[in-house]
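ok so I'm stuck.
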Amino acid sequence: MKKYSIIILFVFFILSFSIQAQDDKKIDSASIQSHDDKKIDASKPTNFYSYLNNSLEFLSRETKGNLIGYRANLTYSPSERHLILGEVPLQYNLQEGKVGFGDIRVRYFYLPYKNYEKFFGAFGPSVDIIAPVGSVSNGIGNGRWVIAPGLAGALMFAEWFQVFPVLSYQYMSKPVYHDTTLNDPINGITLQFISVFALSQAAFIVVTPTFNQHFVNGTSSFSYIQELSFGYMVGPKGQLSAYLKGDFKDNHYQMSIGYTVFF
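replied:
not stuck anymore, here's the structure
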């Protein structure tokens, strides 16, 4: 498994740096007219592009061992209204000494409305699906199917500041492995506020507070997650990024650095 994982990791890196730039997509008439269709603005999550993101990450956990790994995020946008995302992590458990693929994520986002000239700048539904591919016995993966339909919007406060609220419902299946203490499905509601601060035409900071309410066996639990990311465009088709995430209920902390190639 380790041999094939290293080969796949190498292929993804080679692919990301060999992609040739393609013609930019035509922008829908409902989109903001002042937006330059030849310039990539990845700060707004409601701007859809096709790209490959490669990131190296570290996850600190109280139990099951810390993880280091590589995450490939391939996104395809056939038009300004549709986005399809596939995410594959390759992780190594420092405590167990095991390597393998983590849980795979697939996302579809439909954006019927976008007009950044208005205060309410965008709106659309999405659905996230996470498949429990990771080996829980090796401390990799969550061990549950996750289905999360949601709705996202955009509030255009200023040129340098926008907020993208996301409300979603989460269904987490019974574990695919046997666990007498966590053998029930979990339902939840998540509210995010993706807050974008534009520092310049090339650089931006994203601050994302997330509020989770989970329900299982007639009881509920609340958790707060804070995310912070930084993006910097390198030329017209590349972007460097850094990411921090803190799950304060479970004491999980994640950090990563990445490079994105748009095409």
